[in-house]
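Exercise 7. Predict the joint structure of the components listed below.
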Amino acid sequence: MRAGSGPKGSRVSMTDESVAIWADGMRVARRLEEAGHRAYLVGGCVRDRLLGRPLKDADIATSALPRQVMKLFPDAIPTGLKYGTVSVRMNGRLFEVTTFRSETGYSDGRHPDRVAFVGEIREDLARRDFTINAMAAGTDGEILDPFGGRRDLESGVVRCVGRAEERFAEDALRMLRAVRFAAELGFRLAPSVWKAILRHRERLRMVAVERAAAELDRMTAGRDPDRAWALLIRSGLAASLKAPLPVPDLAGLRTVRLAAVAEAELRWPLLWISGGADEGGAEEAARALRISRARGERWKGAVGVHRRFETVFGNLDGAEARETWIGAVIDRGRSAAEDWLSLSGGLLAVPREAFDKAARWLREMPVYEIRDLAVDGGDLTRHLQRPRGPWVGRLLRRLLEETAAGRAPNEREALLALADRLSGEEG
Ligand code: ATP
Ligand code: MG
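Solution:
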């Protein structure tokens, strides 16, 4: 069987970029072979090429030792020497070239105790996680497929190389990878994989938060995030993460459609909302997943807007609904409000009317933040002839509320007069 014809005999239509990645990867492999080594394209690129999916990169496995690879490619970068990986450049693209290796030990359920360079591609393929990821393409175009990856691609199954029980005990992250590939490719999990997940899910707690979070990020941003999360919840993996997260139960998950939200980042706050989290919960989730502060702030803002605004879904005609929305925009910021509008399409509990009104109210706001006001703190202290103090911020905030709601014009004289009145009220 040759690479390039899709499963079930369908013709694949690769993008130009994918064709170029494959061709350049083959050039790297050929140069290694011309020097007397063996070399193959391996793993994800072989799988994706057989499926006709776009390639992001191509990895190369070789019998050459890292120093031999370095000698053949003078501008090579020793990216992971310990694991036998060297990055080489071909026509401006970087390729990871890794010496055939086996892994043994895994006494911590995360990392192999030893990696050993081996002489045969077959041994290298045997250490890989799933049959569909354990194929190699030679420079002659032949596919090496010792574990039936081709058959599993055709029937759409994620199956471990070897016994699932053992493979998940070695590296618990593979359970998340199984879910990710199933959701991304629209595949089923082999019964052996499902059973082994149920049996070993608790081991996920041994996996570093960052590694798990990277997998979760990829499946949440991926092609079928709803199925990914349904599998995570149904299998118990979601509840076995090292970091407890406010993820919904299966019933809660039915109240959202993650895939309906185009911007993948906003699927996260959607998930927290369906898990019943408030702003504090979103913040804790961000911390637990060790993601960046900026991302966490964004999650928090969108969840915060939702929790405020949902309190008026029952009565959208009253003035209170608009006040509540505007208050949320002022508190959480315009971009948080815009984020909420973008993600609300995935929240089945949001009435159409709530979305339409919120979008209009946001558009119609003459000011969104204190910086937009026609007066600043200095104007207020001079005009009221009072020394600076916390009253300035409070007063600016009141002026913002009045102008944002359209009850006062955003004009200097009018705002100073309003400041007189309001500070009189405050005493
Ligand atoms: P993707 O499209 O997600 O990048 P991929 O198959 O290239 O898919 P990578 O994480 O880039 O996935 O890993 C490259 C290859 O290394 C895999 O195809 C698989 O053969 C092997 N591999 C990666 N992680 C593991 C693991 N935890 N256990 C065993 N093999 C793994
Ligand atoms: Mg990859």
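Discussion. Residues 289-364 form one domain.
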